[in-house]
Write a structure and sequence with these properties.
By secondary structure, the chain is of the alpha/beta class. The chain has 18 helices and 12 strands.
Length: 590
Amino acid sequence: MSASAAGRRIEHDRIHALYAQGPLASFIAIVIGGVIVAAMWPSVPHAWLWSWYALVVANQAVRMAMVRLFRRENPPGARLRVWARRYTAGMAVGAAIFGSVALFMFPLAEPLGQVLLMICVAGMAAGSITANAYHPPAMVAYLLLMLLPMFGRLALEGTMEYGLLAFTFAFYLAVVLMFGRSQAALIRRSIAVSHENADLVEELRRKTAQAEAAQTKAEQASLAKSQFFAAASHDLRQPLQALGLFAGALREVNRDPENARRIDQMLTSVDALESLFDELLDISKLDAGYVKPAPSHFTARSLFARLESVSAPVARRNGLALAFADAGAVLHTDAVLLERILGNLLSNALRYTARGSVAVRCRRAGEGWRVEVADTGRGIPPEEHERVFEEFYQLDNPERDRRKGLGLGLATVRRMAQLLKCKVHLASEVGKGTTFAVEVPAGDPAQVAPIAAPPSAAEVDALQGRRVAVIEDERSVREGLVELLRQWRCEVVAAASARELIGALGRAVPDVIVADYRLRDHESGAAAIAAVRGACGADLPALMISGDTTPDIFTVAREQKIPLLSKPVRAARLRAALQHLLSGSATLSA
């Protein structure tokens, strides 16, 4: 803000403050005027006293009228100086009226009356400083016209005593003028500081609004990104799904070593792509709020057994020693989410440890447990400890080797840990290794569920001879599913919609339904399953497959209790899901 603009704002506040104090000052002036009249009543002609007091009252009445007019007009900047001059004139007239008591009411024969007049005049002069310091011209005019007449009267008396009193009044006038000047400067600085503070508050409010707008824009951009990914992922997963299904079917029937090697390479590529999609899907599901923790009591040993079955082959292939030490811990949290957290940490440790060992262990931490994943890898520099938890950030992967993932593993770990309200700690030393630790509440051994018995031979062969109804509008994916299911010796009835499937089934009743979530003509997989169930008159087992990641899909699947598999679905995963459904267990993870 320019100096002139700041000056105008200060002037505005000063003049308004002058008129704000009018009523109280007028009341005080009328009261003191009455005191003077009462004190001088025996010594001064009554006509003079009445005339003088009438002037006091008239002056204050005019002053009150000016205050009302000022408030009514609420003058803009250009008019404030006019009102300032009016105020100065009014104060000058009032001071002249009170100062005149030294000339017309000074009782020479009554020292007590003289003292009273001097006290009243000096007191009113001192009391005016606080009010008039907002406008120095009015303050100076008031002090001079109030005190100079008394100084003159005392000086004219000619005696030493009165001379000393005159000198005292002169000195008093100088002091109050200096004090008034300091007060005026202080008021001006105070007003200036208040405006600066107001400007700072306004600037802070403006920047806060900008920050909130930027945050809203970023959230909208993030939502748009999620929506784009949700839509794009379906289209990207469709051909990948078909490729995986056809490759799985080929491996079932082709026993030629060379062709089997090529098929395995094809499936390895499909698996790599699927891993990348899974990383993105995990973030999408967590951001969408779909994942809801389901705490339970379980042993660390059972959790470590599952982790070991997956990671031991990788450790052997990489020449690393892999050790698990559960310390007999019983944990209380969501077992599936904790397994995903530790699985990500363990996968990173095996991927980035060139030689040495990886250990997964439990340690006591107060009333809970610290589950640690420690490696002897290259370590993480201290300045990178926070960044490794950021999305798409990877340490020591400048070439963006997709075999090393997308850099979402630790971002997913942090999100899942926050969801479980578990703290994640990182300790690392460059060249010596890294330890990630997750704090987990202790569980109750008495509430640990018994371990389920291994599947029977009948459950393993649960697909043979079963009639599977497939609803998939993408031809290549549908044909891939049909081919794969027939390799598993299933009887397959496939169609692009629920209506076509019901017609193809005739009076036959399928054993299980497999439906894509997004079908043609805005038909959903859930609606298609409901239609087939209605036509067949049975609450048939069913599962949905989807390449979408939008929250609505997860919500529908959860509400209707239909297992949901995310594309691309591996053949082994699909087979296991169907076996679970046909054996009576419909609890599957998306």
